Fold:
Amino acid sequence: MEEIWNGFVKAIQLIVTLDPEVMEITGRSLAIAAASCLLASLVCIPLGSLIHFNRFPGKRGLVNVIQTLYSVPTVVIGLLIFLLFSRAGPLGDMGLLFTPTVMVIGQAVLIAPILVGLTITALSGVDNAIPETASALGADGIQAAVLTMREARFGMLTAIVMGFGRAISEVGLALMVGGNIAGFTRVLTTAIALESSKGDIELSIALGIILIAVALIINIALNRLQQRK
Structure:
C-alpha cells in the first residue's frame, strides 16, 4: 500500500513539474484523438444526416447495425487496419503501419459508428413540427434539413465529444497498428500498459491520472451540452 501511495505522490510531482516524457505522451494522445475525431466527423456527420433524411428499404436494419457497432472491440478494428496496411495487405505499399497516421485512421474507423448513430439519434429527436413549419412557409427540402440540423447541433456536438472520449481511451488498436514506439507512437493508454508491466508505478499512475482527468473533462463537457440542449 505504501508503494502505491509513494507512486501517487511521485505521479503528482511529475504532472506539476511538467515532466517532458509525460507531457510528450499526453500531447501525442490528444493530437491523435483530435485528428481522428475531426476526420470521422467530416465523413460521419454528413453520412448520418443523409441516412436520416432519406427513406429506403432496410433503413431500420442499417441503423440497428450501426448502433450494434458502438461497442465493437478495439482489437477487432485494430486487426482490420493491421491487415489493410501490413506489407501483405492492399495498402501496405503506403508504408503507414506503426505510424501516427495509421493510428488516426484506425481510431476514426473505430468511432465512426458512434458519430453516425448519434447524429441520426440527434436529428430524430428534433420535433417534426419544425421542418414541417419551415416547408409550409416556403422552405425547400435542403433548407428544412439545414434547419433540422441546426436544432440538433447540441446532440451532434455530444456525438463528437463522445467519439473523442472513445478514441483517446482505447488501447488495443493503438498497440496493434502503432507499435507503442517511444517518442513516435506511444500514447497514454499504451504507455500505462507498458510502464505497469515494467513496474514503473510512478509514471503509470501519472499517466493514469491524466487520462482520468481527460475523461472527467469530457464528461463535464457532455453534461454542459445536454443542459444547454
The domain at 2-228 is CATH 1.10.3720.10 (MetI-like fold).
